[in-house]
């Protein structure tokens, strides 16, 4: 392997990993490069103290960054050699990545790589256009390649139950000042120059309800923030899906993040976006109910809706110097 090409692959992988999705766009990761190895670490200062006390969502976010780095490295012609949680004495070290054997990236890998900076999280309803069943089946396979299971929820009654649980969790959290203040910490006011958190143009000021209603986070809590774009035509629920794992360990959470980013990049390549609803998963009793009643005993790691949107908005990311040690 040429030294320069390896160095370039490492640089590209770290640069790309910044664009992974994360809870409230907290970007809770740090990277370091030593020789020919990238280290991915969790940034505990960016963990949600009340919404994510266990760190589950933090590790899912970091797992998404790991898959993004893997994809970028493959696009540069190297099969990544990855070790998950390689050192028990350093729990914040989540993974190491080294360029392995040289490979020729195929069309599917290049398609995923092309979506890394274009993929966006959606925070409203979708256009009344169906997501093709063949694409949904491909997203199921994409998640399975990383270990977790993506289950499209086809029963209207099950969709109503998940919506009701989301409404209940959102209602409880909205009454908890700790949750609200934590959310506001990661909400940007209009004109903000911050490079993390959810920018004001990243969510609608007023959201038309879907049927059944999947409430969004109140990023404009006690403020009149948000995108004023007309959302009246975007009221479809889309395809509701659950991402689950057989276990509920730190390894499972990282795997869930990798599966999530794999399916999101594939969906984005076909014009499909995702809206996330993690409120019910942040409340132990509701998450346990979902596990036993709708997930066949597997652990729910993400609730999402998949659909078509024509919303073209910018995203923000911290600079490479902010995340690279």
From TrEMBL:
This is Nitroreductase domain-containing protein. Coiled coil: none annotated. NCBIfam families: Rv3131_FMN_oxido (NF047509). Residues 10-39, 116-307 form the Nitroreductase domain. SUPFAM superfamilies: FMN-dependent nitroreductase-like. Transmembrane segments: none annotated. One of its GO terms (molecular function) is oxidoreductase activity. Pfam families: Nitroreductase (PF00881). It comes from the Bacteria. Residues 206-217 have a biased composition (Basic and acidic residues). Residues 190-217 are annotated as: Disordered.
